[in-house]
Amino acid sequence: MLDNIGKYIVAVADFLCGYPLFFLLIGGGLYLLISSGFVSLRRLPAALKELRTKNDSRNGQISSAQALASVVAATVGLGNIAGVAIALVVGGPGAIFWMWVSAIVGMATKYHEGVLAIMYKGKDDRGNPQGGPMHIITQGLGPKWTPMARFFAVAGLFGTLCIMNANQLTEAFMATFSTPEGIEGSDFLSSVGSLTGLSNADSYKMLFGCAVAAVVAIVILGGIRRIANVASVMVPFMVGMYFLMVLYIIVTRIGDVPGVFQRIFTEAFNLRAGIGALAGIAIIGARRAALVNDAGIGTASIMHGASRNNRPVREGLIAMLGPGIDSGLVCTLTAIAILLCVPEVQDTQGVQGLAVAMTAFSRGIPYGEYLLMFIVVCFAMSSMFSYSFYGSTCASYLFGSKNARRYVYVFILSLIVFAVVPLEAAVGMCDLFYALMAIPTMITIVMLSGRVREATRHYFNDNKNDKTCK
């Protein structure tokens, strides 16, 4: 019975998270990009300038820069490494070009999310400022749309559980720092297994899951301010360290770099690269790689809605930098490292992700697999910090802020469970709810896009007039 239910969940997730989700996110994003006058390209200098502007409101809990760091902490995860490797294996170097295109589209979507998050900022039952599609829907579209807002919140409770991060982080740690023989021969793990009824391998996973849960608990139990403070330090550090690692690979293989970019552009429009990119981004990647930046899912508006900023367009400009960092910069760094160190990536047997990246960094840097493992830990755990806030905000909307605290404890315990349990059906359920979050979010953004365009026009006209007066 349970096996049949699991297979049904996986089948529905496979369908919904394939082409329907791809056309919803990419098709809707293209509409937003074009209708906004290519805001993600034309307004990029303004976005970088606004990042240095201080917030002038107390109607929030964190700054806009902290909101951006927290969003990037959530989106820069294992997908930036494993997802890129999968796209290269399936579609070749040309797939990276289409990732850049999806980043530009995602920036336009995130811009709209940021604007609407401030334009329709709500409050919880204690009067604390709160953002998210729930409030955008009820305030922007009207109270009659409340069922759709609740639909998003329910999907968000499940979609923001870090099932894949907990599981893949555990598997990667085991593969890097232990051997099957060492695990099976451990007396300590055997003792733990005799108490829990688990095998040695599962006991190892459970203990590692407990360690991860403990670290995550220290951060997320401190609330959004502690999450934002940790993210604002952790994100620049881990992205900077990753950049230095790839820079080392580039410098030591500088003669091969032009060839890498030539392969990306020359193979971007051939048949194999096109189909591979769609397979990596839509069928595999709308579920993994194309959702790296979470554009159109609604989570970004939850975090940006907690910003102290009171100017919607300013928040939108800052929000749109997120996909440029994760889908643009970090994914490009991964692609360069892999193509320089594993030029035969397309000959890899099967669809592999993290294993290909580990091979690349082990070839390119002394002890590179261990350095990459450290980055993987940072990426995975930073995602857990921010996603706990997303889920608790959805719980607060549905059940009140008091009960939202209980959700946090469930989130922490789930990290231990998902580190041990075989996850095909569970991951299918998580992906399914993730896709269900995108449906009300994208419908709402498209319906309210006219108000975003109007706010954008007024904002830049006012700024232009101010400069003229000066």
Plain-language structure description:
It is a single chain. With 470 residues, this protein is mainly α. The protein has 24 helices and two strands. A two-stranded antiparallel ribbon has the order 1-2. A hairpin with a 5-residue loop joins β1 and β2. α4 packs across α18 and α13 packs across α21. The radius of gyration is 22 Å and the shape is globular.
Secondary-structure blueprint of this entry?
Layout: H1 2-16, H2 19-35, H3 39-42, H4 44-50, H5 64-75, H6 82-91, H7 94-119, E1 122-123, E2 129-130, H8 133-141, H9 146-159, H10 163-177, H11 180-184, H12 187-196, H13 200-220, H14 223-252, H15 257-266, H16 271-283, H17 299-304, H18 312-319, H19 321-341, H20 354-364, H21 368-399, H22 401-420, H23 424-447, H24 449-469
Antiparallel strand pairs: 1-2
